[in-house]
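User: My collaborator sent over this chain with a note saying "see what the structure looks like." That's all I know about it. Can you take a look?
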Amino acid sequence: MTDPAPSPATPATPAAPTPATPATPASRPARPARPTRATGPGRTVFSTGPSALPVLPLLPYFAAGPTSTGLASGAALPTGPASASRPAGRPPAARGTLDVMLPYYGDPGLMRQAVRSVLAQTDPDWRLTVVDDGTEPGVPEWFAGLGDPRVRYLRNPANLGVTGNFNRCVELAEHPYTVLMGCDDLMRPGYVAALRAARASLPGAAMYQPGVRAVDGDGRPVRTVVDTAKRRLYSQAPAGYRARLGGERLAASLLHGNWLYFPAMCWRTDVLKEVGFRPELSVVQDLALVAELLLRGEELVTDPAVCFDYRRHPGSESSAQAASGSRFAETRGLLAELAADFDAAGWPRAARAARSHLSTRLHALAMVPGALRGRRPDDARELAAHALSPLPRPDRGTDTR
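Assistant: Without extra context I'll predict from the sequence alone. Here is the result:
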């Protein structure tokens, strides 16, 4: 969501409409107090052995046809009769460890591919919950036709918007670990197994980032400037083994250029519920969450196993806002806040990285010619201002943390 450069054009998925929710607050809302933690320079801790997990192949998905069931809006799929291994009345959540939450809005075809990729997992330790923030016809009936007790489907009575639906998914998560999967992305069949192995090898982290392959709208592998920069310029993830990262060093690297792939990440559910996504952010909410967790002393584990396909296309919310320049106004506000937070934490390198934010400046500058060619002078001015203006220090008087 916080990419340093634009990606090539591919078939678009419609962006979400303005949500029917209360107006965005003018000031940053209060957040819970952070737990006491040691300040000072961050650290990087590596595991001792290479990962045994290879690049995992993408297997064919099975097809599922729709049936007409008249499933009510907001209702969940029935879970079916209790099995011999599960006492009657015991919820499925008591058995597993991973909630795959899929906040959905947009192209039903891409969403169905995402769902089938979850159903194709080799490790059965998952439950899928799809939270539909749209009104596409036939979608509830398609899910009812799956008849799979591991899949829950709910449709929001009103559109919550991107961040609102993220927070709704967090509310619904019940297992110890949660994935907030993109509704147009694809899990490879070994994704759940790879994340289980990473958690067993380096337990206790708040965040787990596996290897990711970028694909276009048709699922073909692509090489973009964005992904090349993530991998070669910014990433701290070792190429051949798992690593545990945290502190100022990781924060500074993410502020130089956010090299994480948010939809592929696995999160500890307790920290997601405690911190949540800031409702006033619509594009860089992932970076805000990661930064807050690092400031609380949490850590990230990386795993080189490539087990997730991340789809690049211009129809995403972040791409739409980047083209208009509004994305960068939100980014500047967050970076100013984070610079002050890092100063207060005694993390000068991270604070400098937030104020310089070179990758987002280059991204904005690269988009100015397109705005001028499209005769959007206001967008061009906003993009140029982000690229060339110094970052102001925010007024912290309203921060009640």
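A starting point for your reply to your collaborator: Strands lie at 43-46, 98-104, 127-132, 151-155, 177-180, 186-187, 207-215, 243-246, 266-268, 299-311.
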